[in-house]
Amino acid sequence: QVQLVESGGGLVQPGGSLRLSCVASGSIFSAYAMGWYRQAPGKQRELVAGITSGGTPNYADSVKGRFTISRDNAKNTVYLQMSSLKPEDTAVYLCSAFSVPRSWGQGTQVTVSS
User: Fold this and answer.
1) Short-list 45, 4, 36, 2, CA closest to 18
2) Contact 1, 52 (CB under 8 A)
């Protein structure tokens, strides 16, 4: 199983930017597809962005053109660069490895508010 630790969340004004990081340990990071999810109060958890083991990204329609997912296998880290943030992006952001069983981080809070 993979252990995951997220960081980089915080409070940002609308239109601002944040970069989230997720450091993995305990297994072969480069072998796994990775994903960033988010969960807002009262809403279901949703996949925001994913990246294959080969580095191919995919995005939810709601964040296309604003968020960028990337990975650095040498650092066992996956990133989520978030720009043009909106209040509706406010949520706990969680990192996940598509391992068996699935692995999840503890989450990092992102709040977009003026």
Assistant:
1) 36
2) no
What gap in Å lies between CA 22 and CA 49, rounded to an integer?
A: 13
pLDDT digits 0-9 by tens, 23-46: 999 778 889 999 999 999 999 999
pLDDT value of residue 1: 77
Interatomic CA distance for residues 77 and 34, integer angstroms: 10
Burial class (CB in 10 A: 0-12, 13-18, 19+), 61: exposed
Q: For tokens 């977009």, name the residue.
A: 112
**Cβ atoms within 10 A of the Cβ of 8, count?**
16
Buried-exposed string 75-97: b where 16+ CB fall within 10 A, e elsewhere:
ebbbbbebeebeeebbbbbbbbb
Asked if residue 107 has pLDDT above 90, the reply is yes
Q: Distance between CA 112 and CA 95 in Å, rounded?
A: 19
Cα pseudo-dihedral 69, 39, 21, 2, rounded to 10: -100
Helix count and strand count (H, E) for the chain: 0, 11
